[in-house]
Amino acid sequence: MTNHIVLFEPLIPANTGNIARTAAATDSYLHLIKPLGFEVDDKHLKRAGLDYWDAVKVVYHDSLDDFLATVPDQKYLYLISKFADDTYSDRDLSATDVDHYFLFGKETTGLPEPFMRANPEKALRIPMTDKVRALNLSNTAALVVYEALRQQDFAGLERHHTYEHDKLK
């Protein structure tokens, strides 16, 4: 079982760098669907990911269709959008014998509207007030992947981390 964080045409290198850090911390795959709004070796991307970038399992896709062709079971594909009826925490993400794919839209426009209209049953949202247009993409990715991991009893992750552990490194 693996969780996959999928970014559709990301634009902001700092968001992608922060999400890369989350992917490394959670042993999740990070999928980047082109075109990207930055170079992968961009100094801001590396700075946001710090020294974790080489620990991230990154997969590049030339298009949304190319990415979709790699998903073995569309039942476990989730579209994260503020235009969804179901909340991310209400969906059963506990299966540990399948891969879960969380697809996030471009920072400015989200996921393509025709694609969203064709797949409303896959759409999940994070509840929020109407005072903001959207949450930051990296915060959203962290919320969703950690909810999946919580439901999966944090399988494969350290449950305890101590100061002494850090001092030994």
Automatic annotation (TrEMBL):
Q: Which domain of life is it from?
A: Bacteria
One GO-annotated biological process of the protein: wobble position ribose methylation
Q: Which reaction does it catalyse?
A: cytidine(34) in tRNA + S-adenosyl-L-methionine = 2'-O-methylcytidine(34) in tRNA + S-adenosyl-L-homocysteine + H(+); 5-carboxymethylaminomethyluridine(34) in tRNA(Leu) + S-adenosyl-L-methionine = 5-carboxymethylaminomethyl-2'-O-methyluridine(34) in tRNA(Leu) + S-adenosyl-L-homocysteine + H(+)
Which cellular component terms (GO) are annotated to the entry? cytoplasm
**Which named protein is this?**
Putative tRNA (cytidine(34)-2'-O)-methyltransferase
Function (record text): Could methylate the ribose at the nucleotide 34 wobble position in tRNA.
**Predominant location of this chain?**
cytoplasm
Organism for this UniProt entry? Lacticaseibacillus saniviri JCM 17471 = DSM 24301
> Where does the record place the tRNA/rRNA methyltransferase SpoU type domain?
4-146
What GO molecular functions are on record for this protein? identical protein binding; RNA binding; tRNA (5-carboxymethylaminomethyluridine(34)-2'-O)-methyltransferase activity; tRNA (cytidine(34)-2'-O)-methyltransferase activity
Quote the subcellular location field of this record: Cytoplasm
| EC code(s) of this entry | 2.1.1.207
